[in-house]
Structure formats: C-alpha cells, structure tokens
Amino acid sequence: MKNLLRPETRRALPWEKVKQIWKDLHERPDLRKGLRPEIYDSWERSYHYNVQRGMRETTNLIPEREFAFAKENSKYLMETAVPVMERLSEFVRGTGFVVLLSDANCVSLKTIGDEASLEWSRRANVVERTVWREEKVGTNAGHLCMLLVKPISIYSYEHFCLFAILGAASFAPIVDKGRVIGSIGMVAPYERVSHHTLGMVVAAADHIQSILALNRVSKYHQVITDSMSDGVMVVDLDGTITYMNEKCSKILRVGSTDVIGANIHSIFGTKPENQFFVNTVTQGRTLIDDLLVLYHGKNQIRCHITCTPLHGTNPTDMGTVVIFRESERMNSIVGKWIGRSTKMTFDDIIGNNPKFQHCVNIAKTTCQSDSSILLLGESGTGKDVIAQAMHNESPRKNNPFLAINCAALPRELIASELFGYEEGAFTGAKKGGNVGKFELANQGTLFLDEIGDVPLDLQVALLRVLEEKSVIRMGGNKLVPVNVRIIAATNRNLEEEIARNRFRRDLYYRLGVIRLIIPPLRERADDIPLLVHHFLGLICKRFGKPLKKVSLQAMEALMNYEWPGNIRELQNVLESAIQLAPDDEIDYEFFKQNLGFETPLPVTAESNTSEDSSSEELRILRETLLRNRYNKSATAKELGVSRQCIYRRLQKYNLL
Ligand SMILES: Nc1ncnc2c1ncn2[C@@H]1O[C@H](COP(=O)(O)OP(=O)(O)OP(=O)(O)O)[C@@H](O)[C@H]1O
User: Fold this and answer.
1) How far is the CA of 385 from the centre of ligand 1 (A)?
2) pLDDT reading at 332 higher than 80
3) Which residues form the Sigma-54 factor interaction domain (predicted)?
4) Dihedral over Cα of 249, 255, 261, 265: its sign
5) CA of 333 to the centre of ligand 1 (A)
6) Is the alpha carbon torsion for 544, 546, 547, 548 positive or negative?
C-alpha cells in the first residue's frame, strides 16, 4: 500500500484500484501516515470539519449574484490572468487538461479548456461558480496551495472526497503585494497526470504576478509623471521619441500621442537655434538645468533643461531622458525660496510728507515700465521697501524679486553671484556650475543694493548685460538672454563718486533712467507720529504685548531728533522702549534715561507753561494733534476750527 502511494506508480492505476486505495485510506488511519505530510494534515483538518467524504457530486455551487460579486472583486486579477490561462490552455490542447483560476476565497472564477476537457470537467464538478474550501470539500489542491503558500499537486485518491478522486490537479498561489489573492491550476482525469504540469502552473502564476507588479509600477509611474510639474521626454539614440508626459506635451505644445514614435527633428526641425539641444539629446550628452530657448513653429520655448543619458545593458535601451522646467515656474520657485521674499506693498509704506509722497507717487507710476530705476537716499530711509513695493505692483510680481547687496559680498564673488559660472570656471567652482542672480531673476526684478560699492571693472560687465539683455556665465561662452528689471540703490553720492572716477558715468545714466531721492527722516518729521503709531502696533503685536503709547512730550522729542539711522533707527528705539518701558505710556524721561536719547524739547512748549490761558490752549492743541496722529485737517475738524487756524497756532507755539 505504501508503495502505491508513491508518485511513479500512479499513472497506470485502474479506476477500481484508486477507489480502493482511497477507501483504505479512510478506513485505516495507519495507512494515512504514508501520505505526504501536508496532505495528511489536510485530511486531519477535513475530518475535523466533518466533511462528507462520500459526496458523489459537489454541493458547493454559490448563487449567481454572489458569483457576480466575486468576479467584480477580482476583476483586475481576471483581466491579468485570463490571457495567461488562454495561452496555457492552447499549449495543452488535446491533453485533457482544463486551466482554472480561483479567488482567495476558493471561488472558481474561470475554467478554460478544449471541448473534450471541459466536458470531462463538468462531470468531475470542476466548474465555475463552485467553492473549493477545505471546510466544504476536504483536501484539494486549489485551497491547499493557498494555505501553504506554495505550489502543490494532488493526485486522485489524495483528495478527501469521493467526487474529487476522478482528477489530478496542480495549483500555484498568486501572490500580490505579499498577499495571496487567488490560485491558478490545471486539472485533468487522474490517468493523465504529468510531472510537468506543476512547473507550467508555477510559471503561469509567476507570470501573472509579474504583470500585476508591472501594472502597478506603471500606474504609479503614470500618476507620478502626469502629476509632475516638469516635462519629461525620453528619446532614443536615433532621435525617436519613446515617451512624453502630459506636462511635456503642454510645454512643447504638441500632442503626446502624435509625437511618440516620431523623430525629435520633426519637432525641432533643423533650426540652427535648436541644434545645440538636438545634438545634446541625440549624442547622449549631459545637461544640468541649462536655460535654453527652443523654437517650435512660431513658439519660443524658454526652459531649464536637464539631459541625462540612459545607459541600458541593451544597446536598444540607450538614449536620453530630458526634463523640461519652465523658466517662469522656476522663477516663482526661486522667488519663494531664494533671497528675500517681497512682502512689502505700497500699502505698507507709511508717510504723508509731501516730499516723500512725491517719491512714492513716481515709484507707483513707473512700476509698469521696465526702465531701470535708481533709488538714492541715506541708510534706513526705505529704499529696499520701495523696491519691493514697486516689484509687487508691477507685471513681474509673480516672478522673483532677487536682492543682492553689493557691499556685503567680497569683491571677487560679485561677478559669479551676478552672472553665474560654468563648471571648472575657477578653483572651487561647483560641479555643474552655478546659475547667477541675473538668470534666476529672469522675468522678475533684480535689486542691486549698494550699487555704489561695485568695483569699476565689474561696472563694465554690468553695463554690458544691461545693454545686451543677456549674460555669459564666467568661464562660459553661451549668451543667455535675460529679461530683468533693475532697481539699484545706494546711499553714496554717485555724482561725487563719478567725479572721483570711482563710478562710471555711463552706468549711472543707464541705471538711473528714473532717479528717486528719498528724503531722510529728519526732513519729514511730520511723518514721525504716523510712523511711531504704525511701528508701535507692529512691534507690540510681534512680541505679544499690549499696545503701548508714547506721551506727548516724548513724541515731540522724537520729532525733534536728527535720526541719523532714519526709519531703521526709529524702529529700534521703539522696539527697545516696548521691551523695557514699565508703563503703557512711554514718556520722555524713559527715552532719555534708558536709551540715552537726548533731544531738547521745543523751547516754546516749555516756556509757555507760565501763561495759563496759552498753556491750556497748547495742551489741548498737542493732545488733539496726537490723537489725530498729527494730521492737521483732522485736528482742525475735531477742534471745530479751520486748517489755517491750526497752522497759525502751530506757528505761534513754534511747533511747525
Ligand atoms: N515708509 C516706510 N513705511 C514703513 N516702514 C518703512 C518705511 N521706510 C522704511 N521702513 C522700514 O525701515 C527699515 C529700513 O528700511 P529699508 O531697509 O528699506 O531702508 P534702506 O534705505 O534700504 O536702507 P539701507 O540703505 O541701509 O539698505 C525697514 O524695516 C523698513 O521696513
């Protein structure tokens, strides 16, 4: 008996014999020990489940609706597996085998075979819609391969139930993302058993698993490339475009389906301007974020391009992956991440002083133009703020605002910062080179602060860039067109610098197409109450402190001070006062004692205190002025007098 259980003896066994062996196995537990261990264990479980071994036909058919639901759930498995099953079935045509697919719940989803084998499988209950769970039909290869997560063949009498011993089956589990999602098998009359069947089934399962994994990766790949904000194109060595994502077709303004399979020349033609790019791609050269302007029909495509050669093991896989980054998008990223961000707008610029307002008005009206502008004024007067506000009000507002402080950079670095450099341009130059501020600021605004500190030799290079509207990186020879609005600023007296041959007159004129002279704070003392009020609010908020006030006397002192550091100094004084002053109202004494802030109070204000009526009038006037933040019209309105009357009183008390 033990010998009969050996695989090599099975083939020739007549039906009566296999049936007898099956019977003996059920009746004599000692004989069952001769079964393979995994089959033995399965039989033990089948007894435990109380499976009716004498079943002549299966009662395991599920209702149509449940079956439809199971098929819907395994739709993607069926879509992948059925073509593989069809192919397998073709190979074994005429040999009596049916190919079978079941889901993870052992529902038989699909059977494929030739007519004769399907006819047999119907008689043997190997049909769709049946459930082959061990709990229901005892030991069977479909369920056992999934339980063991390994391929297995089960021969006739090794099945637990009588109806199943007609056949021999080989099954392999289908595993996806580490989970068993079904099984594929081949079943035939037991006498057709072959040692090769299991190998075929394993190969089919492997193939299905690979397709599932590949489909998933290509889905991820598609979602990733389609959601990329950069264009991606793959070109093989003879210039055939083999892949293009949606973004790339948008950038190049071509239909991706039209160009895949076409040659790169069909897009970029033989235009000399495109030659460098086409040659780079077809010759498998490398580019890293190079700003190129390509021409396609009437369109000019301005992009940062990266070309990476593909080195496949197979020569047919060689080619180049090209990444297109739209320069406008790069610019807005640059604007967000590099240099200073432009937060200030004209609404943030405080000051009603007529001289200052005149400057602001010119700045506002010239925002729309591309002419260079030169901001002249002492340190801290608001040149940077005005430059930012101009950018934010201009058509370039969504592109970068880049600022470079020419005085803060070592002399030898200014050129590379401004114009960029190519790889190997000098010792210590970064691999792949570096993009300069001019290129980064493309379509935006470049704020050249402390322009008066630029060395003479660089002034020549700067002038050339401004005139030619293109830069050549240091160590390079390619002209890169740039469209940048220049706002330059200095606190030096440039006329004097020119007279001393330290600044080029031609650059001065070139930069100062529009020239703004921003008044120092001491010349706009009437703006001090407004500025004080504004900064007190901002600073208290920043430090989470309750809003503080400045006493009338302190305000007058602030208005009389010279402010060599201008608005920046005023901000600092107020910040210290907010941090240190014990009371909600910061008085003159505090400024004097804590900040060494020595400002004479207006003589008239003090001397008038002797005369009662005048001192009362002065007190009311000062308080109303303060309440109205030194706005004379509002003060006049509150006091019910004319503006002229207020001016007369201010003159009388020497407050003008
Ligand atoms: N009119 C204004 N309204 C509000 N804040 C201002 C105004 N002018 C200047 N400021 C503030 O004063 C400070 C100094 O201004 P800014 O840096 O623009 O001066 P600057 O002239 O560029 O100085 P520097 O020449 O030293 O670079 C900044 O914090 C700015 O926000």
Assistant:
1) 5
2) no
3) 349-579
4) negative
5) 25
6) negative
The residue count of the chain comes to 656
Ligand 1 center to 566 CA (angstroms): 8
Per-residue pLDDT tens digits for 472-513: 888 888 888 899 999 999 999 999 999 999 999 999 999 998
How high is the pLDDT of residue 598? 61
The SS3 call for residue 512 is coil
Mean pLDDT along residues 69-78: 95
3-class secondary structure, 645: helix
pLDDT at residue 592 in the model: 79
Q: What CA–CA distance (Å, rounded) separates 350 from 354?
A: 12
- Report ipTM (2 d.p.): 0.98
Q: Contact 163/55 with Cβ under 8 angstroms?
A: yes
Report which protein residue has its CA nearest ligand 1's atom 17.
384
Tell me how far apart the alpha carbons of residues 514 and 511 are, in angstroms, rounded to a whole number: 8
Q: Please give the structure tokens belonging to residue 171.
A: 């099954």
134 within 8 A of 38, measured Cβ to Cβ:
no
The string of DSSP codes covering 606-625 is HHGGGSHHHHHHHHHHHHHH
* pLDDT for res 602: 47
Residue ranges of the alpha helices (H) in 442-580?
456-468, 494-499, 505-511, 528-543, 552-560, 566-580
Over residues 286-297, the pLDDT tens digits come to: 888 887 888 888
State the helix-helix crossing angle for 566-580 and 588-595, rounded to 10 degrees. Answer: 100
Name the residue of 448, 492, 568 to mutate for ligand 1: max ligand atoms within 8 A of Cβ.
568
On whether the CB atoms of residues 308 and 285 are closer than 8 A, the answer is: no
Q: What whole-number distance in Å separates Cα of residue 607 and Cα of residue 22?
A: 127
DSSP-derived letter for residue 656 is -
